[in-house]
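Memo to structure team: turn this sequence into structure tokens by end of day. - J.P.
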Amino acid sequence: MVKDLKIIAIIVIIALPSVSFGNTIKISDIENYLNSITSIKSDFIQISESGHVETGRFFLKKPSRMRFEYNPPARHIVMASGPLLVIIDKKSMSEPQRYLTAMTPLSRLTQETISLKDSNMVSTTFSRNDNFHIIIQNSNEKMADQLELVFNVNPIYLSEWTLTNFSNEKIRVLLENFKTNVEIDDQVFDIGNEIASNRKKLKNK
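Reply from structure team:
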């Protein structure tokens, strides 16, 4: 269960407050960029604080759909469709862990229209190595996770994020081969079909 919650935490993306960085880039530029996106395909590299590395593919399609597909030897798939988010164990016939998509602010990223100005998040922004960094934490929660989003500046795109949980554990996710506004079959986000297909494969082994 703890591991499942960590997986959910890894995929968190949080809406940002209205702040700006110098004359180079503004939050409104990031907002316009995110609202120009209808879908995302990307490889990812996930690095824990202990150095453990997992890789996989990330898919997002507006509205309200996303998928993290981990490569072997990892055995899980994280999927969200509408209000439901599940973690499927590809090696188990048991029911997947189920959560409300709204439990993670990732649901904001999957909205057709994203507003970064309507937020109660505390934010710090800075520039490093030609990237724009935004650190966000919910000021209303004493033990809230902290998320650092990293955007390439020219052109603007999301390149990575680092999550720091209330135990001060850091998990970094790097995005590679990042593509937006590409065709993605709706079946990629069909939770029922994924569960049925996985069970069929296990039965045939």
